[in-house]
């Protein structure tokens, strides 16, 4: 056999090992890899950049300015007026004279612009600072939401994992029941309907087991997405479904803590402050503005007359005489100068067609919307707290009742199976007992999940406990 077929290729990619996580490890990993939190950090950076723009708007501006021109004029008249970059020139050309004029002008200078009085400066910077504070508060709220989302995804996996043994146990009992029914029927001691009902029970349990496994795969995929793991990475949860500690606070205290120091409400309040500042910014559009402009520079000019043809004529006693010979001459001149100055510019809008008035009205409406948004958020938080609290209170008795029902159902199935084998009870009694046991075990798992989920919701709303503390084991994706 060739060596290449005797062993796997050395370059073959080894499959990734499954990643086993406890709940605390999953939360720690997810908080560090959350795309939502990464986006919140980018929004904070954006708000700080906007704050920097608001501050830079009122800083002095220093500009380097320059101007360069070149012009050439050919003329046969003595007076030239309004030439670009040259101005007015006067030559004695005579009757048939001609001149070519070339001019080069260069100016370099500095211009300093400084806003002295602008009533929109303070409100605009206040709005920018409030925007940064709102983004930071929103990040704190997003941390809560992200933690709750990871916690919920982990609890969903726990529930799916817990329901699989319930269906596997039910399938084992129903399979054993089918075997017994067939054996009793072969002895002629049972009707055909007993076998058919037992077969139906087996298929129902197989269907339930397949559904439970499917839900587990979906829940694991949802948890992996919350942790931002690659699709090929397999997950294993290490914490089984068990009831956590009861919520220690009463409803009134829980509501109070949910509404005080709440990042979501703080973000809305900062947005309201920003919109109130925008009202002042809009009003500043009708206020006077005073600015200072300082400028200075140096200029150079080069004037060249390469062609200057003059044809002088002699007049004798008022009578035109003979023309003298044409004279061809040329010349040039150059020089430089500096200049500086200052300008105070005052602007007082008188009428803008109602633009400022409408801008103020729009900013006021938006500020009022922010007030309503805060009230709506408080109502939503109150409703969420009451819902989670009521669910948590109900889940406790449900867990105890479901556990008692499961214990009784287990005994009932054993008794019904013995009675059926002895021919004392019909198979219907056994089927009912088995269905009741399966329902009780499923209800117990659902009640525990509801208990843990409602507590996680109360932690979300109140911020208690704080971010998972304690030394966590290092998590590697290798």
What's the helical proportion of residues?
55-70%
CATH arch. level architecture of the largest domain: Up-down Bundle
Query: Spans of 5+ residues with little confidence (pLDDT < 50)?
Result: 1-14, 467-478
Shape: elongated
Output the radius of gyration: 45 Å
Mean pLDDT: 84
Task: Let me know the largest β-sheet.
Answer: 4 strands, antiparallel
First-residue to last-residue Cα separation: 34 Å
Please give the count of helices: 9
Strand tally is 10
Query: What is the number of independent domains?
Result: 2
- In order across it, which strands form the biggest sheet? 2-5-7-10
Estimated structural class = alpha+beta
Order of helices and strands: HEHHEEEEHHEHHEEEEHH
Strand share of the residues?
15-25%
